[in-house]
UniProtKB/TrEMBL annotation:
It holds the Pfam family RF-1. InterPro entries: Mito_Transl_Release_Factor, Pep_chain_release_fac_I, Pep_chain_release_fac_I_sf. Belongs to the prokaryotic/mitochondrial release factor family. Residues 94-121 are annotated as: Disordered. Residues 23-113 form the Prokaryotic-type class I peptide chain release factors domain. It comes from the Bacteria. Residues 104-115 have a biased composition (Basic residues). SUPFAM superfamilies: Release factor (SSF75620). This is Peptidyl-tRNA hydrolase-related protein. It comes from Geobacter metallireducens (strain ATCC 53774 / DSM 7210 / GS-15). GO terms for molecular function: hydrolase activity; translation release factor activity.
Amino acid sequence: MATPTFAVSEEKNRWLREKMTELGVAEADLEESFVRSSGAGGQHVNKTATCVQIKHRPTGIEVKCMKDRSQSVNRFLARREILVRIERLQKGESFRDPKAEKLKKQKARRKRRASGKYEKE
C-alpha cells in the first residue's frame, strides 16, 4: 500500500515517504480513524471529522492531531509526529513530551500541598 499524498508541498510529501522507509514504517502498520475536532472553528469543526487518530500497531504508539481545519493536513501532521516518536523509541529515548511531563509533576506537587492544608485536626 503506497503512502497517500497529502495537501502539503511535494517536498514534504517526499520527506514523509523517505522517513517512513528509513524507519521501516509501512502504511499497513498504521491504523487510522477520524473523529470530530473540538475547540475553535464553530460550525465547520462540529460537522466535519477533521481530527485524525493514528495508531502504530507494532509499537502501540498512538497520536491524535487536530491542529488544522483540513483533514489532509492533519493526516500529514499525525504521521510526522508518529515518526518522531518511533525514531525516539528506536534511539532509546522517551517519546513523551518534556513540557507535558513537567506540567504533570507540577500539578501532582500542587495537589499534594493543597491536600495537606485542609486536613482535619
